[in-house]
Amino acid sequence: MTELSYQTDAYLQEFEANVTAVIADSRAVVLDKTAFYPGGGGQPHDLGSLLVNGVVYPVDKVKKQGEDVLHFLGGDAPLPAPGSASHGTLDWVRRYKLMRTHTALHVLCGTVFRDYGVLVTGGDREPLKGRMDFEFETMRGDLVREIEAAVNREVAQARDVRIKILPRGEAFQIPALIRTKINLLPEGIQQVRTVEIVGLDLQADGGTHVRNTREVGTIRVTDYKSKGAINKRIYIEVE
Ligand SMILES: [Zn+2]
């Protein structure tokens, strides 16, 4: 089982951990804890490196498998032995861009719900670019500038972003979470991590975010696409 250090401290760039298992075929190691985000919820996995016994292994891919986080090691150096101490380092420049982009999408989601009452159905992102799908029947091209101005006003409000881990029963009582389809969470999950942009948005979410909207930067709404009568896709970039 891997302790997910990024869930409580998204700003952890380096960490010490022990190798608890090695999967030779896929050149993957399991660590007892990790700051590497394994991907999910539309946020890509992290990249970086792992130093073990003087060897620096590139971390090319990270994936969650049950309770474990698998770190796939590049290069061809012999794999470390289970029980080895390691030092992990994230590609922080990339990760921080993803945190800003991810938080920008929450600002978009919260603002569009408040101003137009429409819900998100999905989303995806890469560093400094993202898209979000809405049940937004009345979306038109001339709303793009209006939405862009509104999201940038929210960023400028310098709203704090708060992370909480709640018992499942408690989270299921919160109306804002019910609206974002918290009921789709698998039954086995007893604790729900919530991400709140104070005064704007609240979601159940396992990803990494900045601490305050002022870190997001300027959001540009670059495009929108109709995916049918109801579903519309909005594209953003962060500068
Ligand atoms: Zn999020």
Q: Care to describe what's here?
A:
Helix 2 crosses helix 3 (143-156). The mean pLDDT is 94. The chain is of the alpha+beta class. A hairpin with a 4-residue loop joins strand 14 and strand 15 (231-238). Strands 2-3-7-6-5-8 form a six-stranded antiparallel barrel. It has a four-stranded antiparallel β-sheet with strand order 9-10-15-14, with helices on one face. It has a three-stranded antiparallel β-sheet with strand order 11-12-13. It starts with a strand and ends with a strand. Helices cover 22% and strands 39% of the residues. The chain binds zinc ion (ZN). Zinc ion binds at residues 102, 106, 195, 205, 207, 209.
